[in-house]
Amino acid sequence: MLDSGVGGLTVVKEVMRQLPQEQIIYFGDTARSPYGPRSSDEVRLFTRQIVDYLIQFQPKMIVIACNTATAVALEEIRAYVPVPVVGVIYPGARAALSATKTGYIGVIGTDGTIRSGAYELALKRLSPHVEAVSKACPTFAPLVEKGLFQSSEALGVVRESLEPLRSLPLDTLILGCTHYPFLTDAIQLVMGPDVQLINSAEETAREISTILHDKGELAHSLDTPVHQFFCSGDPEMFQKIARAWLGEQICAVPVVWRMSQIL
Fold first, then answer.
1. Fewer CB atoms inside 10 Å of the end CB: C or N, the chain?
2. What pLDDT is attached to residue 130?
3. Annotated binding site for substrate, which residues?
């Protein structure tokens, strides 16, 4: 599983909950985060570099737990590796369509994800009559990477960024960046109780389960899996955020610098 930083831990948490017997090897590219402002070529290059690193572990699946990387690199990576590759955009779109009652869906994400139009395309393919409105929130992911997602500063940034959406009649809002669930409390407070927030992690975990089941590759060992976490930036900050989000499940897992050779 890979992400531009710590955001993909939101997917990790849900996979651990739904598939507790599966071993996860996670790489967060914290040294080059965020991906949102970067060019598509850069994001494709970085994603392929991380996949090259992860392939040494002989995974049975690659999960691109990053919306920006999913938007620009998913199909390329699917053609590149011999194992199934899952992204987070279509699972998020499906979850939103199941939740909405009015068919008016909001999407917030990084500059790169919103610029790609990937969510609008996915929603329209799944339900042609849905109406979607998107807004880039480039300040959100850096807050999370700095560990400030529960601060008063975060609430102020969220309030300012989402103000244009509050007057719209949307009833569902897709958190179109895996960093954004860290800010769920602030986003819900700003948007109000009538707007349902969609975190793609739950649906992504279900898709992972379905694919592995169909291939006869679901883990059945009764032993507790030993997860591995790698990052390209500050391991102390990564571990601090991971522990806060995942709890004790990461306490025995070292977070180490392992990507200096390709930075």
1. C
2. 96
3. 3-4, 35-36, 67-68, 178-179
What pTM did the predictor assign? 0.91
Binding residue positions: 3-4, 35-36, 67-68, 178-179
- Least confident window among 62-66, 96-100, 206-210, 223-227: 223-227
- 152-166 helix and 184-191 helix, angle to the nearest 10 degrees: 40
CB-based burial, 211-227: b 16+ in 10 Å, e otherwise: bbeeeeebeeeeeeeeb
d(CA 85, CA 60): 9
Residue partners of 213: CB distance under 8 A and separation at least 6: none
Please identify every residue annotated as catalytic.
Answer: 66, 177
Quickly state the pLDDT bin for 239 (edges 50, 70, 90).
confident
The CA distance from 15 to 146, in Å, is 24
* Of residues 196, 108, 185, 198, the one with CA closest to residue 152: 185
Residue identified by tokens 């949102």 is 36
- What is the rounded distance in angstroms from the CA atom of residue 5 to the CA atom of residue 55? 19
b/e burial code for range 187-204 (CB count within 10 A of at least 16 → b): beebbeeebbbbbbbbbb
Q: Is 235's pLDDT higher than 60?
A: yes
Calculate mean pLDDT across residues 85-93: 97
